[in-house]
Amino acid sequence: MAKNKAVRGAAVVNQRSIPWMLVSGVTVVAVFAAVIFGYAYTRWSDQAATRDAQAAAEKATEAFKPSPQNPDPSKGIPGVVTAQYEGQQHVTPSQRVAYDKNPPFGGPHDGVWADCTGVVYPQAVRTENMVHSLEHGAVWIAYNPDKVDEAGLDRLKVRAQGKPYTMLSPYPGLDKPISLQSWGHQLKVDSADDPRIDQFITALRLNNNGVYPEVGGSCQAYPGAFDTNNPPKFDATPPGPDAVTMDGKGANAGSGQMGQ
């Protein structure tokens, strides 16, 4: 009898000695790690699928590549709006331009261009700098952050990130979810899956058939003049009565630009 009591006592002691707090903590950490890993894997899978879809979309735009026979293939893209703008009209960093389009795709602009070396800007950038990049042959993808979800933004990012003469940025108040700009050309669409986005980029990015004024213009940020990580901020307020008009009246920077 005494021996049985001793055995039972030892069992109770062993049971009481199990570190339940430690076990619970390890379990919580394991579950948390599994959730994080699962989310990361799902995001990686989604991004891989997005890249694959983008590669297929770009391949499907071969017919929209510029050629001597078809110097501006964007004319065959439904919804593209065009306008004629004079180049080399530059304003100072403190000046605003009373643009005739929203977002603008030509006209007077800052003497410093925005970095358009495949940059994805997390915040809206001063419009006057972005327009200058269009003069150099870039395509600017603008989106309304209130109308484009995470999946749609991923689709837009893969079109811009690391792509030469391309830039992506939010544009608060945009009347459509997405708007694409090249010099003198604009296309507004409702979905990031719209095939016209890739057609527009193929047709107009670095299309030097007289489509943009400054062939050979750089997209690299000018040292000391434009900080890619902290660019001039977007101003959503309407331009004042002293704003430079679309004919260039009131511009203080003359016809020169940085580096000239």
TrEMBL record:
Keywords assigned by UniProt, alphabetized: Membrane, Transmembrane, Transmembrane helix
Residue intervals passing through the bilayer: 20-41
Secreted in keyword set: no
Region named Disordered: 57-78, 224-260
Biased composition (Gly residues): 251-260
Stretches assigned to coiled coil: none
Protein name: DUF3105 domain-containing protein
